[in-house]
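Question: Now follow the chain.
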Amino acid sequence: MTIDRYADAVDGLAPGAGEVETAELAVTDDVLVKAFALGPGATVEPHEHGDATNVFHVLEGEPTLVRGGEEESLAAPAVVLNERGTVHGARNDTDERAVITASLCPLP
């Protein structure tokens, strides 16, 4: 057994076209770290968290990340800070799986 939670949680995720599969990597009373595996053409709809900061980490692939009015295709490794109240999301415009994690803290 390893202390790394990524491989165990994400290796089994195999989203099809247009699908998003998720896995929780860490959950405590003040933080949530969740993996999002995006299949080709999949989208994490833009949304906001008024009471929490959300940090995206691009770990696989080249997803397009949305923050406020900006969009940028980013290859792994990359980090995007989404301040409280900032609309953010992601989509996969490629033919390969893309994986991001989202760290949300503090939990509302």
Q: What stands out?
A: The chain is about 5% helix and 50% strand.
